Amino acid sequence: PHTDIEGQVFVFPKESADAQVILNMNHNGPLQNFTVCLRYFTDLTRPYSLFSYATWATDNEILLFKDKPGVLSLTVGGEEVVFSFPENTGSRGSWEHICASWESATGIAELWVNGNPLPRKGLQKGYSVSNQGVIVLGQ
């Protein structure tokens, strides 16, 4: 059976370096492509992780990271691409919606912020992500 966490909210009520939610993934082979969409709301001013896929070999095999206002990075298999976008100054105190996707066959990485696509980047063409991992939210 297929289950997802659409509509669910995880609350981290205070800043910490170890508060986290770990989700087991059920996948029958290496990942050749993925799309991750999430909404977040925070008043953190330091850099922080939005989504991580950790394997035994690599803590952040896939990492979606908020480096600073207007800058997000996507890492796949140790290679990183950085996306810059005009931060919505009125968005402080409102939800932000992010979607990131990657396709092994072309190496194309895409990012959307609040429904707006950013210029595509190239990342890890031909790479396979291990299916032996867990999703880590928070931390």
TrEMBL record:
Q: Which GO terms describe its biological process?
A: acute-phase response; innate immune response
Q: What is this protein called?
A: C-reactive protein
Q: Which InterPro entries match?
A: ConA-like_dom_sf, Pentaxin_CS, Pentraxin_domain, PTX_dom
Query: Which positions fall inside the Pentraxin (PTX) domain?
Result: 6-139
What is a single molecular function from GO for this protein?
complement component C1q complex binding
Q: Which organism is it from?
A: Pelodiscus sinensis
Q: Which cofactor does it need?
A: Ca(2+)
What are the UniProt keywords, alphabetically?
Answer: Acute phase, Calcium, Disulfide bond, Metal-binding, Secreted, Signal
Taxonomy of origin reads: Eukaryota, Metazoa, Chordata, Craniata, Vertebrata
The family annotation for this protein states: Belongs to the pentraxin family.
In which compartments does the protein localize? Secreted
Its principal location?
Answer: secreted
Per the record, the domain of life is: Eukaryota
PANTHER family per the record?
A: C-REACTIVE PROTEIN (PTHR45869:SF7), C-REACTIVE PROTEIN-RELATED (PTHR45869)
Under SMART domains, the record lists: PTX
Which terms in the GO cellular component ontology are assigned?
Answer: extracellular space
